[in-house]
């Protein structure tokens, strides 16, 4: 019994066809068929039923298939372990990043550059999307790691995360607006003003909507923008009240922006590193996640 025979058997079962399996393996179809016949002769039983339009497993074939797949997975695990032990991390990493998360304090680009220098054999795929979409992609295995905005301290089912940014939400308008007379500002006061917010599907928008629900008001979203800096610029030009993470006073002054914290202590902007609850499956992704968690440690709840 040879490893390649198990590989051929698994491919034929998955494709339900010898020709498609051979094409997938980049081999000639007669060679694949001959190797599986040799395996069947060695075992003394048929593993595949070739009588129909598609190839199916016999009763014995179905019984041995889990062991075939376990053997192939074990061999792949040996290869991966050897690579990791030798420091030759290779493969692919798919990472998602919520818009506006990469800042001077949260220098994701710099960390990715360092990871690439150390592991040039790893292909890194970086994409931007809404937090809800990225959490769904994590569950489906389309992303290994995501940097997302979250509205709560506890992760959703199937996801683990580490909150790395936790700052109060503020209401921001042009300097001199009498709306800012109250400090902190009741969330209920937002009901009377046009609001500027991130789109739905983002953690910041979810936090705003939860805060309004607690206050018993319905927010009127007049403008949506994809990044907090753009929200601030729109508010500074008198287009409404932006709800965004707390802005450094020097930056607010440059923009001509006035801010007030919201009175709801649960109204906070949180950014988290997120991954599947049982951890990334690919070695390169595990290595990158370890670096991210070390570089951006968890913060205490505000």
Task: Write up what this structure looks like.
The chain is of the alpha/beta class. It is built from ten helices and eleven strands. The protein has helices at 3-15, 18-25, 29-43, 59-85, 108-118, 131-140, 203-215, 228-236, 249-255, 283-295, and strands at residues 48-49, 56-57, 91-97, 122-128, 145-150, 159-174, 195-197, 221-224, 241-245, 257-261, 268-276. Strands 3, 4, 5, 6, 7, 8, 9, 10 and 11 form a nine-stranded mixed sheet that branches. Strands 1-2 form a two-stranded antiparallel ribbon. Strand 3 (91-97), helix 5 (108-118) and strand 4 (122-128) form a beta-alpha-beta unit. The mean pLDDT is 89.
Residue windows where pLDDT falls under 50 for at least 5 positions: none
- CA gyration radius, whole angstroms: 27 Å
Number of helices: 10
Shape: elongated
β-strand number: 11
Classify the secondary structure makeup into a structural class.
alpha/beta
* Element-level helix/strand string: HHHEEHEHEHEEEHEHEHEEH
First and last CA, distance = 60 Å
Mean pLDDT: 89
Q: In this structure, how is the largest beta sheet organized?
A: 9 strands, mixed
**Strand percent estimate:** 15-25%
Tell me roughly what share of residues is in helical segments.
40-55%
Short description:
By secondary structure, the chain is α/β, with parallel strands linked by helices.
Topology:
Elements (H helix, E strand, L loop, with lengths): L2 H13 L2 H8 L3 H15 L4 E2 L6 E2 L1 H27 L5 E7 L10 H11 L3 E7 L2 H10 L4 E6 L8 E16 L20 E3 L5 H13 L5 E4 L3 H9 L4 E5 L3 H7 L1 E5 L6 E9 L6 H13 L7
Parallel strand pairs: 3-4, 3-5, 7-8, 7-9
Antiparallel strand pairs: 1-2, 5-11, 6-9, 6-10, 6-11
């Amino acid at each position: 019994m040879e490893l390649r025979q198990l590989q051929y058997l698994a491919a034929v079962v998955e494709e339900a066809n010898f020709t498609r399996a051979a094409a997938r393996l980049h081999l000639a179809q007669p060679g694949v068929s001959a190797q599986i016949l040799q395996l069947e002769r060695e075992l003394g039983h048929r593993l595949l039923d070739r009588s129909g339009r598609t190839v199916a497993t016999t009763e014995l074939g179905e019984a041995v298939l889990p062991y075939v797949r376990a053997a192939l997975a074990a061999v792949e695990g040996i290869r991966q372990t050897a690579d990791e032990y030798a420091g030759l991390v290779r493969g692919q990493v798919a990472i998602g990043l919520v818009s506006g998360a990469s800042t001077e304090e949260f220098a994701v680009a710099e960390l990715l550059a360092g990871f690439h220098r150390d592991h040039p054999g790893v292909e890194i795929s970086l994409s931007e999307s809404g937090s809800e979409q990225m959490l769904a992609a994590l569950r489906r295995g389309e992303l290994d790691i995501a940097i997302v905005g979250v509205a709560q301290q506890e992760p959703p089912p199937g996801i683990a995360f580490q909150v790395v940014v936790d700052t109060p939400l503020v209401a921001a308008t042009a300097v001199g607006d009498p709306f800012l007379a109250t400090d902190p500002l009741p969330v209920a006061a937002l009901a009377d003003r046009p609001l500027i917010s991130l789109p739905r599907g983002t953690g910041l928008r979810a936090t705003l909507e939860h805060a309004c629900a607690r206050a018993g008001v319905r927010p009127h979203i007049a403008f949506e923008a994809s990044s907090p800096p753009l929200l601030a610029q729109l508010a500074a030009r008198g287009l409404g009240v932006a709800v965004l993470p707390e802005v450094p006073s020097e930056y607010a002054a440059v923009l001509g922006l006035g801010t007030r914290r919201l009175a709801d202590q649960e109204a906070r902007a949180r950014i988290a590193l997120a991954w599947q609850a049982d951890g990334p499956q690919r070695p390169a992704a595990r290595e990158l996640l370890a670096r991210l968690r070390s570089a951006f440690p968890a913060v205490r709840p505000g």
